[in-house]
Amino acid sequence: MLNLDLDQVFKSVVKIPKSSVDVIMDGERRKPEKPIRVLLADDHKLVRAGFRAMLNSLGGIDIVGETGDGREALELIRKHQPDVALLDITMPSLTGIEVATRLAGEMDNVRIIILSMHSSVDYIASAVRAGVSGYLLKNADPVELELALRAAVNREMYLSPSVSKQLVDDYSRRLGPGQEPLTARQREILQLVAEGKSTKEIAVTLDVSIKTVETHRKELMDRLGIHDIPGLVRYAIRSGIIRAD
């Protein structure tokens, strides 16, 4: 994954690979030398089926796995080591952004493209901070999927054009070092708490003691200034960690 400084985002963003431009202009597809290996993760089966159909229609794409769960997506990426992972931003167990954050330090050969319905600066900021290679809106034109994939394998960044330069400029001005309020473990526990898991269930899921879970929960509450579960759920929804379903 790419670890771009925010002032570099627009040097490579929405950059259309030459081969893709030629495809559009010539009206025919050029097959890559070898297939792009893709993993697909979205917790909505119909959405996932739609992306699968689009990927298959492109040619030169090998779908190595798919899932609707964030934690399983992380394990499948580690197992299959795809060229590109297409991740929904909000999934059970782990968000797509959290998966990207965890992989940033261990698998820099895997490019992450976030799939999202949200164009707000908070979501985009979190994705770029996690080192993703692209941020694709789900209502984007199908041709954008190919452009995003080609950009990713060329180590470039792609954002949907509807995610405007002004929008990203706004969050990049507000984003500075050391502003992430929670650690990775605290974000993980926050998501599980917000999903309604008990302290014991969280301890089993994370393979830690109940006391460790309680300690992390107290620390994240102190950091956020939130001291009740409903407040944590509202924060998780605002931050895109869970959906308001």
Structural features, described:
By secondary structure, this protein is α/β, with parallel strands linked by helices. The protein has 2 domains: 6-174, Rossmann fold (3-Layer(aba) Sandwich), CATH 3.40.50; 184-238, Arc Repressor Mutant, subunit A, CATH 1.10.10. It is 50% helix and 12% strand. It is built from 12 helices and 6 strands. It has helices at 9-12, 18-26, 45-58, 70-80, 96-104, 121-129, 142-153, 165-174, 184-194, 199-206, 210-224, 229-238; strands at residues 36-41, 61-67, 84-88, 111-116, 134-137, 158-159. It has a 6-stranded parallel β-sheet, with helices on both faces. Strand 1, helix 3 and strand 2 (61-67) form a beta-alpha-beta unit. Helix 6 (121-129) packs across helix 8 and helix 10 (199-206) crosses helix 11 (210-224). The longest helix is centred in the C-terminal third of the chain and has 15 residues, at 210-224. It is elongated. The two termini are 31 Å apart. 37% of the residues are buried.
